[in-house]
Every structure is written in C-alpha cells, then in structure tokens.
Amino acid sequence: MSEQPPVHPLQQLRTRFAALDDPRVERTKDHHRLDMLTIALCAVLCGADNWVEIETFGNAKRAFFEQFLVLPHGIPSHDTCGRVFARLNPQQFQDCFRAWVQDLMRASGGQLQGVVARDGKCLRGSRASEQGQDASYMVSAWAEANRLVLGQVKVDDRSNAITAIPVLLKLLELTGCIVTIAAMGCQTAIAAAIHGAGADYVLALQGNQGTLHDDVALMLRHEEATAFREVSHQTTTTMEKDHGRRETRHYWLIDDRPYLDYLNEEGAWANLQSSGMVSAEREIAGVLTCETRYYICRVGTVEEFARAARSHWGIENRVHWVLDVALREDEHRARTDDAPQNMAVLRHMALNLLRQEKTGKGGLKARRLRAGGDDAYLLRVLRG
After folding, report:
1. In a domain, 160, yes or no
2. pLDDT tens-digit profile of 196-249?
3. Residue, of 275 and 104, whose pLDDT is higher
C-alpha cells in the first residue's frame, strides 16, 4: 500500500519529511511514519503533552485523520509512537525541519532578515536520575522579524553549548543578519564564524571572557561619567509601558577607533566595530530596579545595536518561556534514546505554525484549544 495520501493541505509538510528514514524493520511497519508524524504534530498543536495524550487525541480525531492519512491499522498506540520517535535519526529530522521552515518563509512572502538570536535551553523532563541520565540541552536559533524557530542542535553530553553554537551557525543562511548570543557564546571563534557567514554580531559580556568584560565596563563607566565627551559615540533611549510596568532603556554605542584597537589589540575579535552598553530601569508597582549590560559588536549604528540587544530576549520570552508555559515542555518525560531531541523539534514545529497563524484571537493557549475543537481552524494553522 502506498504511503502517499490524497492531495491535501498537509501534502507539503509530508513531502518535506518524506526523506526521513524509517528506523523499523519491514515486519514491524504497521503504521506509516508520516501518519505518525502528522498525528503527533496535530496533537501537540492542540494541547497534547505526552505519548498517551497523543494516542488519545488521534483516536478522538480518527474521522478527521481518515480523510487524508493512510492508517492501515488505525491510530498507532502511545508505545508505538514513543518507540518510533526515540529511534528517528535526529540529524535527518533537523534537516527536514529546516527545509520546512524555508517553505514557511517563502509562503509568507518573506526571507530571513533582521536579528537572529541563539540561546540554550535545558529539557528538564528528559532527566532520569535513577539511571544516571542527565537532562538534554538544546541550542536554538530564533528569527525575531520572521517569528520562527530556525533550527536547533543538541549539546553533546560530553561537551557544552559553546561547541554546539558553531554547528548551528553552519546550518543556517545568515547573510545580512545580526546574530545575538548570550554571554556563554562570546568567544573569538564564534565571532569569526558569524563574520564568515556574512553576518554581524552583538555578543553579551560577562565575567567569563578574561579581562574583556572588566575593560569594557571600566571604560564605559568612565566615559559615562564624562558624558562621553572623549570618544566617538552614538546614543538612543526607548521607553515601554505595559500592564503596570514601565521600562526605560538607555543605549550607548562606542565606535571610537583607538578605544576599539585597545580592546582588540591582538585582533582576536573578527572585525570588531563597536562596543555597547545598555542601562535599563524597570519600575513595577512602584519598585524600581536598574541593570547595566555590556556588549562587543560588529554593527555600525546605535539603532541596530538597540534592536539586537532588545530582540535577543525574544528567544527567552517568545520561545523558551512559551515552550515551558504554553507547551509544558519541562513536564514532558521523553527520555529514551533520541526521543527528547525529536520531541523538541515537534514542539518547535507546533510553535512556528501557531506563531504564523494571525487570524485567531487570544494567545497560544487559546489557539491550541480552538484547533483541538475546530477542524477547519486546525487545517488553517497547519497550512502555515
């Protein structure tokens, strides 16, 4: 029996993932892998958070799925889904995911642009303490302007996020973008990789770059005390008010050549063009807090710097926080083999589709609930 379903709005999705190898031997292929992928994705979109809920959703929506899936033996059990997703090749799954994201961007008439943020996230539910298994850790890339997760790479158990970031950089077309990375990624090799990819960078500083953080902080505090009269600089200020919160951010970008030559006297930072400071004042319920952060950059204007510094937190607020709160990622107990990594890709697929659907009212939770009860709306979300 052919795995190809009748022509349907999901055909493009299934075509992109058709290259995904089936890990099962022939005699155990009672359910088509693309059927299982489609059911699992729809279930996660509509609120399912584990294998049992995915099976329950599939059975509840069997009449819906029978319109366009093969289903030679009905809806697969939760055990079958768990086994298959644990054994899918995660690299192939990632490759298919990135090709599918490109389709989403083309369908919306856009292309990768603006700020691309990279950050890591621990999949806490994948930890199995009784078996001595640590939680999986993923590094993801988020395109702020496109509102899409572009890709993700698992951090090797014997390594750290610093080694995973260059791997992710090589997988993406970044020409003309500004790449932002948290302090863990402020490394000379990573700056060189970003520059080599045709992109600019804004890298956060902490106390883990030798004396660089202290040098930048000391010099910028000195210049601030003298109103920046001694260096070439640019500055801008932004203000935001929302639900009782008021936040004011002051940005300074130093592009003074002697100053930068001192910071980069050995030339280790690829095409270092500026350094920056953000002073943020936040008032909530009458309580004022202040924070100052420092950066090294390859951007030429303070507007670019401000947009990049602010946009970096989009991966925290619009990806990691949403995955934890709306998609309950930390509660998912997928632990076997490559199941944690592959399920993370499924959740990123669901998040991308929900972000692209702009006709529905309410937040992501409301959209998930509506998709679960409204087949026409679910298909609209799946079209991207």
Report:
1. no
2. 999 999 999 986 666 889 999 998 999 999 999 888 999 999 998 877 788 899
3. 275
**Per-residue model confidence as pLDDT tens digits over 76-121:** 999 999 999 999 998 999 999 988 888 888 776 666 667 888 777 7
Residue given tokens 């640019």 in the structure block = 234
Report the candidate in 118, 235, 122 with the shortest Cα–Cα distance to residue 185: 118
User: Beta-carbon neighbour count of residue 213 at 10 Å?
Assistant: 18
Angle between helices 339-356 and 78-87 (to 10 degrees): 100
174-179 contact pairs (CB < 8 A, 24+): 174/112, 174/116, 174/198, 174/199, 175/199, 176/113, 177/112, 177/113, 177/114, 177/115, 177/116, 178/114, 178/115, 178/116, 178/202, 178/299, 178/304, 178/307, 178/308, 179/115, 179/116, 179/117, 179/118
Instruction: Please say whether the beta carbons of 345 and 95 come within 8 A.
Output: no
User: For residue 142, is it within any domain?
Assistant: no
Question: CB count, 10 Å around CB of 215?
Answer: 16
Q: Residue 364 contacts by C-beta under 8 Å, 6 or more apart in sequence? A: 322, 326, 327, 351, 354, 355
Is residue 191 domain-resident?
no
Q: How many distinct structural domains can be found in the chain?
A: 1
Q: Where does residue 162 rank: exposed (0-12), middle (13-18), buried (19+ CB within 10 A)?
A: middle
* pLDDT greater at residue 102 or residue 62: 62
* Residue 328: Cβ-neighbour burial (10 angstroms; 0-12, 13-18, 19+): middle
Specify the higher pLDDT residue, 316 or 17. 17
260 phi and psi, to 5 degrees?
-70, -35
Q: Are 214 and 151 in contact (CB under 8 A)?
A: no
| Lowest pLDDT segment from 148-152, 162-166, 214-218, 277-281 | 162-166
| 317 assigned to some structural domain | no
CB of 65 closer than 8 Å to CB of 75: yes
d(CA 384, CA 370) in angstroms, rounded, equals 16
Distance CA 338, CA 242 (A): 41
Class of residue 228 by CB neighbours under 10 A (exposed 0-12, middle 13-18, buried 19+)? middle
Spatial CB neighbours of 292, under 8 Å, sequence gap ≥ 6: 217, 277, 278, 279, 280
What domain range includes position 32? 11-94+331-383
- Amino acid of residue 92: Q
